[in-house]
Specification:
CATH class: Alpha Beta
CATH superfamily: Vaccinia Virus protein VP39
CATH topology: Rossmann fold
CATH architecture: 3-Layer(aba) Sandwich
Distance between the termini: 66 Å
Number of helices: 6
Number of strands: 7
Structural class: alpha/beta
Order of helices and strands: HHEHEHEEHEEEH
Strand order of the largest sheet: 3-2-1-4-5-7-6
Bound molecules: S-adenosylmethionine
Largest sheet: 7 strands, mixed
């Protein structure tokens, strides 16, 4: 009986520590992430986005705010692409680094993505926060090569027309996924200012 009790306390203590680590790392990153919390995209939604955006082996996919790096791992497994993920939340960064260990073609960087050079990206993925989307549209218009594709989970790029809007899965995972071509964003850059 005391064995069960110890087990319960150890489990509860472990869960409490994980929760506290999430709270502290979120509080630490929040001023820089401007409202974007560490929340992972459901695998079902990532699979739908990858289905809609075919890539070739060796293409570069960039996840702006990569969380635990799952988008890059799934894309690599499906298409053999290279991945770069930017992440400022220490807990998410550590998790992504651990989970991507042994995959040299995925590079997880603890850096602010606003200074990232996206010119080599074939696909840019983001799941951010409405407040930053207009600025993001300007950055994408400035950085991306004409053949690139942007996948934005939940929040659109204001002022731009998506090529596709996906609503995959059942009611729990039904938020929109917006897909844009860089040509469309570049062609209309200035629409947000
Ligand atoms: C909603 S999560 C999405 C995680 C992952 N892309 C996914 O779909 O599973 C957004 C992440 O972006 C990160 N983030 C927000 N602004 C950032 C910035 N300027 N530089 C680097 N990471 C940022 C946050 O820390 C957070 O973990």
């Amino acid at each position: 009986m005391t064995g069960w009790l110890w087990g319960f306390f150890i489990l509860a203590g472990g869960l409490f520590c994980v929760k506290m680590a999430y709270v502290f790392s979120t509080a630490l990153a929040l001023p820089a992430t401007e409202g974007a919390l560490y929340v992972s995209t459901a695998r079902l939604r990532i699979a739908a986005a990858l289905e809609a955006v075919p890539m070739a082996p060796g293409d570069l996919m960039v996840d702006l705010g990569c969380g635990d790096g799952r988008v890059l791992r799934l894309a690599r497994r499906r298409y053999g692409v290279r991945g770069v993920g930017y992440e400022l939340n220490p807990l998410a960064f550590l998790k992504a680094r651990l989970l991507c260990m042994g995959r040299p073609d995925i590079d997880i960087r603890m850096r602010n993505f606003w200074s990232a050079d996206l010119s080599g990206a074939r696909v840019v993925f983001c799941y951010l926060f409405p407040d930053v989307m207009a600025r993001m549209a300007d950055k994408l218009a400035a950085d991306l090569a004409p053949g690139a594709t942007v996948v934005s989970c939940n929040f659109p790029l204001p002022g731009f027309r998506p090529e596709q809007v996906l609503r995959p899965g059942g009611s729990r995972h039904n938020d929109p996924i917006y897909i844009y071509t860089a040509a469309e964003i570049k062609g209309n850059s200035g629409a947000t200012t």
